[in-house]
Amino acid sequence: MASESTHAVLQPNVGTAEHGHHPAQMPTGIMRWVLTTNHKEIGSLYLLFSLLMLFVGGSMALVIRAELFQPGLQYVQPEFFNQMTTMHGLIMVFGAIMPAFVGLANWMIPMQIGAPDMALPRLNNFSFWLLPVAFGILLSTLLMEGGGPNFGWTFYAPLSTTYAPPSTSFFIMSIHLAGISSILGAINIIATILNLRTPGMRLMDMSLFVWTWLITAFLLIAVMPVLAGVVTMMLLDINFGTSFFDAAGGGDPVLFQHLFWFFGHPEVYIMILPAFGIVSLIVPTFARKRLFGYASMVYATASIALLSFVVWAHHMFTVGLPLTAELFFMYSTMLIAVPTGVKVFNWIATLFRGSISFEVPMLFALGFIVMFTIGGLSGVMLAIVPADFQYHDTYFVVAHFHYVLVPGALFAILAGAYYWMPKWTGHYADETLGRWHFWLSVIGVNLTFFPMHFSGLAGMPRRIPDYALQFADFNMISSIGGFLFGFSQLIFVWVLVKAIRGGEKAPAKAWEGAEGLEWTVPCPAPIHTFETPPKFVPEVDSPSRH
Amino acid sequence: MIRLTIAAFLGFALLPLIGNVHASSINTSSGWNMPMGVTDISQEVFHLHMTILWICIAIAVIVFGVMFWSLFKYRRTQGAKSAHFHENTFVEVMWTAIPMVILVVMAIPATATLKKMYDTSNADIDILVTGYQWRWRYEYLGEDVSFFSNLSTPREQIYGQEERGDFYLVEVDEPMVVPVGRKIRLLLTANDVIHSWWVPDLAVKKDAIPGFINESWTRIDEPGVYRGQCAELCGRDHGFMPIEVKAVSEEEYVAWLASKREAAITEAQGADREWALGELMERGEGTYNTYCAACHQPDGKGLPPIFPALAGTGISIDPSARQAHIDIVLYGKTGTPMPAFGTTLSPAELAAVITYERNAWGNNTADSVQPAEIRDLLGSQ
To answer: Which cofactors are reported in the record for this sequence (chain B) (predicted)?
Structure first.
């Protein structure tokens, strides 16, 4: 734990608005946000954009849950239902979860490594502003003749090529733009982490959030081009007469799935590794005890990332792979449980013999650990091929990936938001409202997704707008839970607005047990921080010190 | 608020118990869990699933037990002071090694079962299963029997104008009939997009992919009707292409095959005679509603731009485009979802449906197409 004397050493040379960069030339109004190259402002843009997308994608989820509230077709027709499931997935994955993590990275990575900004500030601006364009295009497809994408967020060919609506080329364009944004963002993060660490900070002295993001950024650079390639092949199939995925022209529909999931599985970890990083900061803070097994956390993250490249076909157990391939992907997938388990055990060992308090960030982090583990265990079940034949493409899978993404990734993002809100706004988040937000979210998320395990096991396929009467009860519960969860998120907006406007003022070190350079600068963090690098003494400041 | 959470959990745990008393089961599932099924393989899969489930529950109990105990015991409000340890090689090695052992224990029976599921050799009967948007077609290889299997739940039930039956959305007009006690090999493919043939009680789920022929197998010992659904998103009516497998005695199966062959002959003979316009229209309406209405809609207005309208527009009202109309129905249209029906429907059905499309919804071309004409067209190939 950093002592008071450490803080004297770490005293940063904090830039303030008065002597910041040429305030006279700084554009005002909307142009300030359009042209900003400041990592904090861009971070805020990313976070607010992802919050907006969370509500857009969430509204679509509520359309789905409303239609599934009872058997029969009541509110929407199957073609619109399919557009909702597709857009919900695409928006949540590419518009909400990923940009939220990039926003957190923008805000926190420079402050955690003692850098004045991201390494490539203009590129940073460009990566963000690609996103509103990408999602503007994507959402506009809903208004086009024939409707928007209706083939699931996994857009399997040939449903997404020969049989797709004409708007598909626009969908491909938006995926390209979002992909470029991700690649540029990842390059920027890697460049920042590798080049701009304050003198004395070695890689093994970085916070776990920085570490997990570094590894995530490499995953992004490795797989986003594969996604770009696969959508380009689709574009050629649709518009230029090629037959990559058209069996009638000698193409191979299964090739699409191999390429998609070679991107898609690492993508799953792109959405969870930074969450591990956030939780690995919050748990020690509120347990007032150093993270157990820092080094093994780093190695476990790297192992998960490497394994993510050799497990993709576990999404394809029913496509008719040869027996040996099924066995290989079963074993490799099961292996991922080991490093993931190490992480969970490390967090629990951190709690063990700590001095634990339950502020809102900690509540969300603990909720993450419990419910992510539930999602992880159902993941182990899904790895078992013979059983997967029964689980595959059912609500059991829907339950599994929502457990790892909603009370997993999303809860970690919310935990991070509550944790760093004092640093962003200067004020603590309202504790009472935060608790309501947490508990209503926990109830809502479990009411929504836990019954899906049952409906899936009993035989309900996913992506259907209507179902056999046997599944009626569980669907009704899921729908009630879905609405509860969705509306509970409005509390967060309330909390955020409240914290921006006022509230209990936070000192530089907003949490008693917090460690790291970001807690040496005032709350709210001034627009420019660490214009000269802070001193960093590994023996005192490193999370891996002995 | 913790109490509220517990109450909510109990609430949703109990609700289905009450509800499920009324709803009839569409498979051998308790409504909560994977169905045990009716084949050796399905039972093996069920037990494998239960074994892994219990292992996972045990892990969850231990992990969450330690976690919640720590959260309770080391509360700051109770004056807990934090310890200073932050690593322990022995513990870390153990919690890496023990999960490895557990995984190996899981992998051994999984591998054994998977090998059995992959052994499609020495089958008694081969059935070619083809997925279409949005129906299944079964062809009994070497038996000269093939037919489409369509959802038989009426639209009125889907839209709530009629009370829903016990097998709402999981009932078909023509089930796949198989004899009990025989090894049946399924050869799966698709005509348009990817589908997936899934019957939970048989523990068979295999994708039907255009350009590929996948294999799977089953042997059913108990006579009965086993229901399933398409499991791969295949477009608009993905939720409306169920599967029904009817397992019967050997004698019944043989009799059923004979009756199917006879029906096919009668159907083909329909092309030997002249049909009146009214007769064609009546037959055509039924055929249209089964095979065409999902895309072109019962009112012929289609869902443009993907599924064009037939009512009051295009070749179906153009007197000079009669032959073009016949061609597109018989041979399909490449690059679009329109399939070729020439090889799968009978001349009578084809003639009737084309006649219907040229005269229904105010199209009134007064054109009629005779089954014999279609037969001659197809025969001249």
So the answer is: Cu cation
